[in-house]
Design a protein that fits this description.
By secondary structure, the chain is mainly α. The protein has one domain. About 65% of the residues lie in helices and about 5% in strands. It contains three helices and two strands, in the order βααβα. A two-stranded parallel sheet has the order 1-2. The radius of gyration is 16 Å and the shape is flat.
Amino acid sequence: MCRNIKPLFNFDPPASEEEIRAASLQFVRKISGFPKPSRANETAFNLAVADISRAASQLLGALESHALAKNREDETAKAMARSARRFGR
């Protein structure tokens, strides 16, 4: 999986459409191998991003969890601490 795609489920507040679209864009970039599509492939690329965004929104809406929702700021702080330990900053 692409390292830039972040988990979007079970957060408070829930993932925004912008976050879902960004994850979908990263996914399509990863599987297509194109950071930016050519004009010939642009329509197919954008359609794939839209389709994956729609599917991801449906998935996130249908999932259930008994765990408490995670706080975005806390999770970001934890990730930054892991990165600092890993890369020595």
